[in-house]
Model the fold of this input.
Amino acid sequence: MNARTSRPAVSIRNVDKVWTPEGRTPVRALAGLDFDVAPGEFVVLLGPSGCGKSTLLYMIAGLEETSSGLIECDGLKVTEPSAERGLIFQEASLFPWLTIADNVAFGLSVQGVSPVRRREIAIEMLKRVGLGDMLDKKPDELSGGMRQRAACARALAMKPKVLMMDEPFAALDVQTRSRMQDFLLQIWKDSGASILLVTHSIDEAISLADRVVVFTARPGRVKTIVPIDLPRPRQSRDPRYHEYRDLFTELLADEVDRAFAEQEAA
Ligand SMILES: Nc1ncnc2c1ncn2[C@@H]1O[C@H](COP(=O)(O)OP(=O)(O)OP(=O)(O)O)[C@@H](O)[C@H]1O
Done:
């Protein structure tokens, strides 16, 4: 972990979330979440389907309110979205009618950056993610991996302190996924941002994380937090890698069974 200050980048204090959809039974998604993310730390959220991982990201992003408890970023209570907290989804949510460079520049226009400077930043960011020769392409002219890199460039252009990623590589093929993981580690080091990444993949968690937060089945609670004490780049042939894999498989198995049992009973 390359924490630089003692103040957490994200502080999650006793957070509950109950969804109350109109005309439907309330859903208790998260209960009593309490953990911190250090500046520059890479935290992976791992847990069974429906345990509230995405819900947590939306609350940190300021897109949803907590039902109780407190979320702070850099010491300030989260009340609304901020450029300091970027969110990337499974499918790159780029505007299809804009070029890649204009997509990256778009958020900066909201911040009042001049058109010339926006273009400069967009080019710089797209070069950084290896898309320097794709500036004037539209999203549908790019592969899925390229689109995700463009989404990363757009988020990084805002210089976020926290970058949240909701299963960002789940839709990609195995080879592209592995390259994107290497790429992500590189931009994480370069940017100094904290990363919170949701995945269902145990291997992705071991390959990327400083710490893995394992959730219980719904309502999601922190089952345990496991630091990954392996040097990077992580090698799947390392016997300790296999020990982590066995540990996470065991930790998740009970929770996945519980989640299934609940779905069948519903
Ligand atoms: N907008 C919403 N309105 C009502 N209920 C919601 C809403 N969003 C999520 N939920 C419910 O909250 C629970 C947690 O959902 P969430 O998507 O956060 O879980 P998850 O762990 O990210 O799941 P998955 O791994 O399948 O993506 C689920 O039961 C879901 O149906």
Remarks:
- The chain has two domains: 10-84+161-265, 94-159.
- The chain has a mean pLDDT of 92.
- The pocket of adenosine-5'-triphosphate is lined by residues 19, 21, 27, 29, 47, 49-55, 218 (CB under 6 Å).
- DSSP finds seven helices and ten strands in the chain.
